[in-house]
Input
Amino acid sequence: MSQMHHYNNKDYNYPETPFYEYKSVENTMINAADRLEKDHRLRDRRERTARVFKVIIAVLLFVIFVQVVYHLYFARNVKIDKITIETGAGFSASDEQILEMAGIRTAESYFALDETVIETRLERFSQILSAEVEKKFPDTLSIKLKGRNPLAVCLIETDGRIIPAAVDSEGVIFQLGKSVTDLNLPVISGIRIDEARLGVVMPEAITTFLACLKNLRIESPVFFDGISEMRIIRKSNDDFEVLMYPQNYSIPVRLGSRIDKELFTYVILVLDVAKQQGLTASLEELDFRTDEVVYRLREE
Output
């Protein structure tokens, strides 16, 4: 009778693999895949960066090449052929003198010419208030000048001499001696300056008075034109009063260090009354330094 043998797993000593070991192998494979993917991305990034740098270097080399060609063959051949000059009324300098002041020679290089430098050169001259210089491609230079507007003719006492000088509302001397051409302006005398030369600015107290005079010309040109002379009488270094000689009246008027339309209206009113009453010949001076008008009679 045959015998049957039943096998049982227990008859074999199979080692059992723990579950955590399977998990460890799986994690190792995933980490390896991640590292490969990261390495691939890093390699792609480096290649892209290298390509970008190559493009940048190529562009820079092209720009350098263009600059060299531009300076060697193009820029030096573009010249200023047309120069337009615009000046305001009363500006006495000729175009040739203006170009000399600007330091501009014939056939200047368009690209080498610096507008700011030219403006600075021109504005160094006392008769020029402001300069505007503009290049217009390909061959034109535009110069616009604004001259100083004379406000008064000052009789300046310096070195024992009296020199006429034209000044603007900022107190800048821009015409001196024989160059003073506009004499139909109020004359201001009694000003002392150590050195009278073009470009010198009047003392601050005088420039403040000139600003008042400018406002008077704007607000009432008739009153402004009615001033013949104003004599500065100094009381101290920073304080003075004015003895004004109006046109069409023979009576001097004493004022403080300021003048305006309201005060001038009052002055003309009093002068008209004195003239109508026949007091002109007997009055030596009218004093408007206070709220009440004070008059001084002539000595017989």
